[in-house]
Design a protein that fits this description.
This protein is of the alpha/beta class. About 40% of the residues lie in helices and about 15% in strands. The strands form two sheets. Strands 1-5-3-4 form a four-stranded mixed sheet, with no helix packed on it. A hairpin with a 5-residue loop joins strand 3 and strand 4. Helix 1 packs across helix 2 and helix 4 packs across helix 7. The longest helix has 25 residues. The radius of gyration is 17 Å and the shape is globular. The two termini are about 30 Å apart. The model has no long low-confidence stretch (mean pLDDT about 95).
Amino acid sequence: MNHDFEPQLHPASIAALRPTQMTVGFREVARKRAEWRKRAQADGPDFLGRHLIPVVLGPQGKFFVLDNHHLALALHEEQVEHVLVKIVADLSRLEKPLFWTFMDNRAWLHPFDAAGQRCPRNRLPKTVDGLLDDPYRSLAGELRRAGGCAKDETPYAEFLWADFLRHRIDGKILERDFQAALALALAACHQRDASYLPGWCGPET
């Protein structure tokens, strides 16, 4: 996600971070946990210094996460207590209704559940350990790593891919055989009806 602000860096408790989305892909979280375990002893501080969590400073001085929810949850599950955050906007003086309206209009909220349905913002989890699993988000992440689509700076790009795949790949297949679901995703991602999606790598003709 691209942010057009000069960031300010601050340490923050992961437990105090406020998500701006409802779901993550638990497979993605597990992958990031494994990556952290490989690095923790050798270059843990450097790793954290290179993977800052972008946040908005909101009402009551709370940090609202704009990206890297998977990493924040993975580190939390690995008993890491603090991360560095970069404040990309200070909206702490706004009243809550105006704050939420601004966040929504900037596409800094993604209040969609694991079925891809938009929900009231009061259902957003209060902490990262309240994030729920969307298996299609994991599938979308693996699809990108497999070369099915390009990384794109569009906000929540992989959730858009997840919703595309949700309507084309049966959930039972995804639950039973992830690799089979990935093969189906790779077959679907280059089709013309996916051309509206960010990072589409389909044929020109």
